[in-house]
Amino acid sequence: MMGKGRVGLAVFALLVGGALPLRGQILIASGQRDLTFGTIFPGVPEVVRRTDATSGRFNLRGQRRLEVRIVLTLPVVMTRTTGGNTMPIAFGAADGGFNRQNNVGTSQVFDPRAPLVTRLGNNGRLFIWLGGTAMPSSTQRSGIYQATITLTAAYTGN
Amino acid sequence: MKKLLNSSVVVVLLAAAGTQAAQAQSASISATATVQQALTIAAAGNLAFGSVFPSVTKVVAPSDAASGAWTLTGAANAEVTLTFTLPANLTDASSNNLPISFGAASAGHNTVNSRAGLSLVNPTAVATTRLDAVSGNLYVFIGGSVSPVAQPAGAYSGSITLATAYTGN
């Protein structure tokens, strides 16, 4: 009687473990590189492409081949670090790139303004690159401007 | 019964691990930029032909003291464009015209405030140059010529506008 009970519970445990990712397969997101516009001039928009060495980059690591949903929270302005002034920043439909190897040259384009649903690679990795455009006005106050870009990722269950 | 309890604990732990893994994960990076100082421009002197006589063309070179002048200030060594908006005529209070023209060497610029040693430019085209590598200043001068014909005596004037912008280089 007790033996039957153990078998039943063991089967249940396997079902639960198979349906949900195990501890070693937790999805991990990390910011790897800032999106850097460098020194720019008032009145001259500065474009950083996703393939540029100064594009932003995130890494995702998790269970191989699982589907993930990625949302980027993008700023609309950068703020002068010493206070007050802001500068518009924009992102276009081709400013996002992703790849399962760490090779931006072969990355696929995506619109960072919309959620991205894709799968982690066989290595459990996904690399995401981000470009953008800083748009200083002709009277933009000099100084260092900064904004935060956040990537949020979760398994979809597929 | 004790064994049954132990197995139940295993199931609960597995379920908890799954819940943790399903949570959304976030990471942030920064977008950064360093903005150089804005470009400013100020008029520093009018182009003055003085008294002219009918049928006698009067020429003012950019190196002449009577040439028009502007002062630009911006980021040291930054490249800028110079775009002139030039009149075709000077006019008097009765709207009589006095033709004015500009040649290929009618304007010039210098990184010091001197009309000597100008780099000459054609004011009818967009010019590109750099601000001084230390001060970030640029001094721009413009001459021209007027060709009075048989026209009413009087004071004639017109506006010359210089627009400038960083190229980003």
What is the topology?
The complex is a heterodimer of chains A (158) and B (169).
Chain A (H helix, E strand, L loop, with lengths): L1 H18 L8 E6 L1 E6 L5 E3 L7 E6 L5 E7 L3 E4 L5 E5 L5 E4 L8 E3 L5 E4 L5 E6 L1 E3 L8 E13 L3
Antiparallel strand pairs in A: 1-4, 3-12, 4-11, 5-10, 5-13, 6-7, 6-13, 7-12, 8-9, 8-11
Chain B lengths: L1 H20 L3 E11 L4 E6 L12 E3 L7 E6 L5 E7 L3 E3 L5 E5 L5 E4 L8 E3 L5 E4 L6 E6 L1 E3 L14 E6 L3
Antiparallel strand pairs in B: 2-4, 3-12, 4-11, 5-10, 5-13, 6-7, 7-12, 8-9, 8-11
What features would you describe in this structure?
The relative contact order of chain A is 0.27. In chain A, the strands form 2 sheets. A 7-stranded antiparallel sheet of chain A has the order 3-12-7-6-13-5-10, with no helix packed on it. Chain A contains 1 helix and 13 strands; from the N terminus they run αβββββββββββββ. Chain A is about 10% helix and about 45% strand. Residues about 1-25 of chain A have low confidence and may be disordered. Chain A has a single domain (about 25-155), classed as Sandwich (Immunoglobulin-like). In chain A, strand 8 (about 95-100) and strand 9 (about 110) form a beta hairpin. In chain B, strands 2-4-11-8-9 form a 5-stranded antiparallel sheet, with no helix packed on it. Chain B has a 4-stranded antiparallel sheet with strand order 3-12-7-6, with no helix packed on it. In chain B, a hairpin with a 5-residue loop joins strand 6 (about 90) and strand 7 (about 95-100). Chain B is elongated and about 85 Å long. The model of chain B is unreliable at about 1-20 (pLDDT under 50). Classes of the chains: A mainly beta (about 160), B mainly beta (about 170). At the A-B interface, helix 1, strand 1, strand 2, strand 4 and strand 13 of A face helix 1 and strand 1 of B. Strand 13 (about 145-155) of chain A pairs antiparallel with strand 1 (about 25-35) of chain B, so a sheet runs across the interface.
